[in-house]
C-alpha cells in the first residue's frame, strides 16, 4: 500500500513524514556505542552523555516495517527507500542536496561537487571562486569556531573564509587576528554620521587617545569618542585604544586663573 508514503524523484518510496529536524530519512540508526535507536547522530548526541561515531554504524531500523538490518539505502524487507542520498562511509541518509563524499575531508559535503574544490593546504572544500583567490592557513578547519566554539570541520553551519584566511561562522571581525571580516566601508560611513550627530560632553571635548588599527596596523592619535575611534590611515573603526585619555588638563588649566583671581 502506498498510504503514508511519498514518491521520490528516483522512483522509490519514502515514509512520510520522515526524519528529524536535521535530516529527511526513513530509518533509524542503531548507535554502535549504546545500541539505542535514533534518527541521526545529532539527535543521539543531544540526548546521551556521549557521542555517536557515524563511521561505526552497522545497523538501521526501517521506519515502516521496523526491520533491523545492515546499513543500506533500501529496506531489504519492504523496499522502502531510506534516503535519496546515502553514503556508505558516513552512513548519511538524507534528501538529495547534491551531496558528495570528500575523501580528503573524510565526510560528506553539500554540493554540487563541481562547484567546490579541496584545498590541500587548508585541508578543506572551498567554493571554486576561491581557487587561487584565498589566503591559505594550514588545516584551518581543524579547530573550533572562535565565536561559537563549535567544531568547524564537521559543522552543518557554513563557515565564512575571511580575508585573513581564518574561518568562523559569523562575526564582523576575526577574533583570532582581529581583522575586519568583510568590506565594512558602508558601516564606517554610518559610524561617521552617528559620531557627527553625537558630540561628547564638554569635559571630554578636545580629549585625544592613542589607538592601534586592527586592519592596517597603524598607530595614531585621534579624538576620543565613546562610539568609536577612527583610524586616520585607512578610515577603519576596527581599532583598539592604546593607553588612557590625553589632553584632558585643558579645562582645569582654564579654571585655575579664575581660582587665583578669587584669592
From TrEMBL:
Q: Which residues form a coiled coil?
A: none
One of the GO BP terms on file: ubiquitin-dependent protein catabolic process
Q: In which pathway does it act?
A: Protein modification; protein ubiquitination
Task: List, for all copies, the residue spans of the domain called CTCHY-type.
Answer: 82-144
InterPro entries noted in UniProt = RCHY1_zinc-ribbon, Znf_CHY, Znf_CHY_sf, Znf_CTCHY, Znf_CTCHY_sf
The UniProt keyword set, sorted, is: Metal-binding, Nucleus, Ubl conjugation pathway, Zinc, Zinc-finger
Q: Which SUPFAM superfamilies match?
A: CHY zinc finger-like (SSF161219), RING/U-box (SSF57850), Zinc hairpin stack (SSF161245)
User: Any one cellular component term from GO for this entry?
Assistant: nucleus
**Protein name per UniProt:** Ring finger and CHY zinc finger domain containing 1
* Organism field: Amphilophus citrinellus
Q: Give the classification, highest ranks.
A: Eukaryota, Metazoa, Chordata, Craniata, Vertebrata
